[in-house]
């Protein structure tokens, strides 16, 4: 089995992200592997353990994103590839999907490509189905359990309405959710291996493709309206008295 | 502006966000509703009653189970021949992949989880939250049709006019499924906290009541039972923190937060939840937040409008009783 895990680098979720002068800033907050993509790597490693094979971590991003790829290597991925090109700075999801698809084909012979559910920064959850569509592969989204049998994969999808069991032939694209199990911590050996790993960097020219046109562009960024955050603590003689006061306050807010 | 609204449903049960999308579409002019499935007469009827001027329906046995590929191919084929400017969809797991795939087919842009939309001439600008809601962006799609999925509860639901009718146009189904549905596992009850007007959530605190003399899981079950009773009185759904989900107190589909669902109900009650940033990003857009926690220093209070410092096992039943009385239930 050859498995590819697509990962992105994002500012840590504790980062103070703000809109400033039309730009998104996050100070010197650390950049990390997109937390949802750790599940993609975990899912890929589980399948490697079950069926043998290799895991390749793949990222489209700036040079700094090598650190996120190293995290995947430290978790246990066998190799990592970064696609980086100045022309990709403002790439939209469709463009990223086309680049990922080209890189997946260049890596070659993949049986499964794993994605995270969504990114922390863009948060769209569309790149996986778009990449699947560009490749013409089946898309099995929001997989909480994965089982490979012969040439097919059976996935339990975690949906609003419950869990749906879906089967498709390989190769297939999957997005992986939390039910797969907690992502493993990088091992000491893994960290040492990752630190020494040479990560190849491919340009658009290496993929024999032109820069995709950005169909979606960011016209403005705003900070969300400041909220009333002063908490009024309700006190009283007894839980019943407090409940009575709180119930009145809730009703007075006319939210019910 | 030629606007389409995709009506998302699960086996005939329409996602309420579909009607919100229809309402928004109507405010921009005439609207065609797109309905796929098998035996969807009731959905078609409802679409007219919620204001659709036309319904384009592919009613075909091959579309009985939602599958991304045939649904995307059917929608893309229709859109390439009838050329709408804008396709609105509610935001669900299905529509994220459906709109994403259609954007590939139609070489256009997709904007998800949109909370406001501005149309000036031919340009559509959509407001959506990025970086877990810490920042908003105004995104512009330069291609057509723009595919826009709307955040649940961000747009008003239109009124229903019983008996209202319109033009029904039949469309063809593309049957190119690349996967098959083998079944459903019955372990998990259906919940959709994203659409609920009220969400009552529990965290690790639901397992903390030594006086019950039960083990951790049984205590947590009792705790969630109390929250469920409050939710029922308020007509809401039960949510949870990740700590509660990870400990196995309640299934993952209830989880609110960064790795769970982002919700924006009218009322959010957090009980026994400390208020970690990863939880806050999932609920801070609620209109009114109430926190119940033993610890007066818990960060959840900084996000709440009203707070009660106390034991949820004591206070939640009292609040349920007070609410039941006031709401006459
Ligand atoms: C990458 C990543 C993603 C994450 N995603 C999510 C996510 O999607 N959603 C999420 O919720 N978390 C998420 N987390 C976890 C998050 O950081 C917190 O660990 C989690 O939210 C804590 O849950 P909690 O508040 O229930 O538990 P705790 O932090 O343990 O808080 C329990 C609270 O209950 C109170 N309490 C105890 N007993 C009682 C009682 N009897 N009555 C009243 N109050 C009581 C305590 O005072 C305490 O404040 C994520 C973390 C990471 C690193
Ligand atoms: N630049 C990228 N490089 C590699 N994978 C990506 C990239 N952007 C998105 N992905 C993958 O696609 C998933 C969904 O991203 P998004 O559509 O941005 O929410 C992520 O969880 C990643 O697995």
SSE blueprint:
The complex is a heterodimer of chains A (256) and B (329).
Chain A: E1 2-6, E2 9-11, E3 18-20, E4 23-25, E5 31-33, H1 35-51, E6 54-60, H2 66-75, E7 79-83, H3 93-107, E8 112-116, H4 127-135, E9 139-149, E10 152-159, E11 162-169, E12 172-176, H5 188-196, E13 201-202, E14 216-222, E15 232-233, H6 239-252
Parallel strand pairs in A: 1-6, 1-8, 6-7, 7-13, 8-12, 9-12
Antiparallel strand pairs in A: 2-5, 3-4, 9-10, 10-11
Helix pairs in contact in A: 2-5, 3-4
Chain B: E1 3-6, E2 9-10, E3 13-14, H1 16-27, E4 31-37, H2 41-49, E5 54-59, H3 68-82, E6 86-90, H4 93-106, E7 110-120, E8 123-130, E9 135-141, E10 146-150, E11 167-170, E12 179-185, E13 198-202, H5 216-234, E14 237-240, H6 242-246, E15 267-271, H7 277-280, E16 288-293, H8 300-303, E17 306-309, H9 312-326
Parallel strand pairs in B: 1-4, 1-6, 4-5, 5-11, 6-10, 7-10, 13-14, 13-15, 15-16, 16-17
Antiparallel strand pairs in B: 2-3, 7-8, 8-9
The structure holds flavin-adenine dinucleotide (FAD) and adenosine monophosphate.
The site of adenosine monophosphate has 25 residues of chain A, from α1, β6, α3, β8 and α4.
Task: Walk me through the structure.
The complex is a heterodimer of chains A (256) and B (329). Chain A has 256 residues and is of the alpha/beta class. Chain A contains 6 helices and 15 strands. Chain A has one domain: Rossmann fold. Chain A is 29% helix and 30% strand. In chain A, strands 11-10-9-12-8-1-6-7-13 form a 9-stranded mixed sheet, with helices on both faces. Chain A has a two-stranded antiparallel sheet with strand order 2-5. In chain A, strand 10 (152-159) and strand 11 form a beta hairpin. In chain A, helix 2 runs antiparallel to helix 5 (188-196) and helix 3 (93-107) crosses helix 4 (127-135). The longest helix of chain A is centred in the N-terminal third of the chain and has 17 residues, at 35-51. Chain A starts with a strand and ends with a helix. By secondary structure, chain B is of the alpha/beta class. Chain B has 2 domains: 3-170, Rossmann fold, CATH 3.40.50.620; 198-327, Rossmann fold (3-Layer(aba) Sandwich), CATH 3.40.50. In chain B, 29% of the residues lie in helices and 28% in strands. Chain B has helices at 16-27, 41-49, 68-82, 93-106, 216-234, 242-246, 277-280, 300-303, 312-326; strands at 3-6, 9-10, 13-14, 31-37, 54-59, 86-90, 110-120, 123-130, 135-141, 146-150, 167-170, 179-185, 198-202, 237-240, 267-271, 288-293, 306-309. Chain B is elongated and about 65 Å long. At the A-B interface, helix 3, helix 4, strand 9, strand 10 and strand 11 of A face helix 3, helix 4, strand 7, strand 8 and strand 9 of B.
């Amino acid at each position: 089995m050859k498995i590819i895990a697509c990962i992105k680098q994002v500012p840590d979720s504790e980062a103070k992200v703000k809109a400033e002068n039309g730009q998104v800033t996050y100070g010197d907050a650390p950049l990390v592997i997109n937390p949802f993509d750790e599940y993609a790597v975990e899912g890929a490693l589980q399948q490697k353990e079950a069926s043998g094979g290799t895991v390749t971590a793949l990222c489209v991003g700036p040079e700094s994103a090598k650190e996120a790829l190293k995290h995947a290597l430290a978790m246990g991925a066998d190799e990592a590839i970064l696609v980086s090109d100045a022309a990709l700075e403002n790439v939209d999801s469709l463009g990223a999907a086309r680049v990922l698809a080209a890189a997946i084909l260049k890596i070659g012979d993949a049986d499964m490509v794993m994605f995270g559910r969504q990114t922390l920064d863009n948060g769209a959850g569309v790149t996986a189905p778009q990449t699947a569509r560009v490749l013409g592969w089946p898309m099995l989204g929001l997989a909480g359990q994965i089982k490979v049998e012969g040439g097919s994969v059976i996935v339990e999808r975690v949906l609003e309405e419950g869990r749906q069991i879906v089967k498709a032939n390989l190769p297939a694209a999957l997005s992986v959710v939390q039910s797969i199990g907690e992502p493993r911590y990088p091992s000491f050996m893994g960290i040492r291996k990752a630190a020494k790993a040479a990560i190849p960097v491919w340009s658009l020219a290496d993929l024999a493709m032109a820069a995709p046109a950005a169909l979606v562009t960011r016209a403005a960024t705003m900070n969300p309206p400041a909220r009333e955050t002063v908490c009024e603590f309700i006190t009283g003689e007894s839980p019943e008295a407090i409940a009575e006061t709180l119930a009145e306050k809730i009703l007075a807010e006319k939210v019910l | 502006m030629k606007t389409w609204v995709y009506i998302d449903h699960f086996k005939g049960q329409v996602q309420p966000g579909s009607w919100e999308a229809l309402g928004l579409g109507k405010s921009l002019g005439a609207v065609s509703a797109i309905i796929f499935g098998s035996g969807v007469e009731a959905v078609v009827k409802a679409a007219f009653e919620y204001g659709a001027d036309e319904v384009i329906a592919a009613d075909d046995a091959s579309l009985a189970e939602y599958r991304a590929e045939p649904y995307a191919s059917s929608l893309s084929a229709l859109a390439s021949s009838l050329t709408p400017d804008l396709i609105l969809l509610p935001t669900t797991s299905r529509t994220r992949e459906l709109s994403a795939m259609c954007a590939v087919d139609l070489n256009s842009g997709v904007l998800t989880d949109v909370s406001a939309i501005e149309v000036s001439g031919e340009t559509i600008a959509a407001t959506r939250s990025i970086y877990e809601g810490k920042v908003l962006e105004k995104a512009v799609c330069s291609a057509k049709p723009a595919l826009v999925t709307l955040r649940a509860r961000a747009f008003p639901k239109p009124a229903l006019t019983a008996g209202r009718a319109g033009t029904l146009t039949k469309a063809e189904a593309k049957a190119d499924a690349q996967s098959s549905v083998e079944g459903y596992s019955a372990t998990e009850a259906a919940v959709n906290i994203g659409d609920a007007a009220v969400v009552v959530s529990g965290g690790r605190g639901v397992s903390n009541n030594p006086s019950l003399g039960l083990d951790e899981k049984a205590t947590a079950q009792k705790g969630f039972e109390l929250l469920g009773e409050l939710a029922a009185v308020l007509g809401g759904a039960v949510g949870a923190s990740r700590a509660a989900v990870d400990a196995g107190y309640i299934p993952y589909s209830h989880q609110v937060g960064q790795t769970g669902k982002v919700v924006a109900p009218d009322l959010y009650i957090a009980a026994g939840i400390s208020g970690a940033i990863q939880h806050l990003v999932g609920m801070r857009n609620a209109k009114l937040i109430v926190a119940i926690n033993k610890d007066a220093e818990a960060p959840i209070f900084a996000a709440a409008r009203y707070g009660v410092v106390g034991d949820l096992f004591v206070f939640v039943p009292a609040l349920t009783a007070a609410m039941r009385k006031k709401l006459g239930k």
